[in-house]
């Protein structure tokens, strides 16, 4: 580590180049070094400002993270294996979070299933909740924000999915299981799954009333927890037997309005992340109307069906479809977090495709949490989307893309940035407001094993914080251009 910090002592930077350009940019002056204190916003929360998120210092924040993860869908409902003692849990948790921090992520979307929280009606499982709390707290100790996500797939584990407890169903249920590689077809082919959603949305047997009470407890529990950005009421909701368009407009949109009010009543500064449906995720289109409420962030998913179900997806698909979700954010004038996108680990072109996904996120100023990060020998329904295989080894073709430079927080306006994966060159430009602040750039150390250099149009940099580059403009500067490139 000390050798790496010494290598960071030099600096140099490149101006932004238009995408697709083959011209080599002219070098800018080497960036002087200076000592910069790590910024400490008075509050960990972020606030929407049109289509951007700002921290308590007014800086524009970009969230880049992972989901924690598919292993959280079944007992013991955490995203990693651990020894049966609490000491064993803590050791595995630290290892899990240290690896995420080493990738340079700034956010974790943290699934929980209702069946884990309240396995029997009226009684919450404090052991599970304490472990969930520990994950959230441990993430923030590493400066990783968290999103509390109620996760469901095909309603419940009694249908080979996850999410709602079996006691919310008024009819006999099978035993929970998670051994169905074709689980997703049950949305359209399993009448019991469809009936469960129908009864939830109409609150025919009180499940929706109990769901509201669950969220009141969850929001109250985390309202003052450092690092928690907010809540996602439901993952990939489904319409049951209803017409999709009619249901999204007349049921799902009002549901999000209702949940935003409920959550903000318990936690007034929380962000409320609302998802589109799993069907919407394939085509990046939705019938949702804009919900009413404060602190809203649109949080749809996008998956390339070719990548998931066989074949070689075109990298250009990422730019095409993710721009559609960015357009929806501009239409509604709110930030957009792509809560999920990912590919099977063994996809031959995984690295190329995931690079295109991240490039599209950068180009469209989207926030993103990759699906998914579990560290377990056992998988949910044989899914192979985790960044870690069942032997605990990284899918390096993908993790080398996930661990890439990006601006965590920009003390300026109109930021634009791009990372050239082949050249390992990151470039950021932004306009400087009247008061010069400190910009934070995540620079994962694995990208630059021999160190990196920085070029800067004006100002100075501090590269002494591991995995982080701090930039402070010169007095009177109106624009900053900074680049990071290998030594």
From TrEMBL:
Signal peptide: 1-18
Domain Glycoside hydrolase family: 90-375
Keyword presence, Glycosyltransferase: no
Residue intervals of the Glycoside hydrolase family 5 C-terminal domain: 404-477
Keywords, alphabetical: Glycosidase, Hydrolase, Signal
Family membership: Belongs to the glycosyl hydrolase 5 (cellulase A) family.
Entries under PANTHER family matching the protein: ENDOGLYCOCERAMIDASE, PTHR31308
Protein's name in the database: Cellulase family glycosylhydrolase
Organism: Polyangium mundeleinium
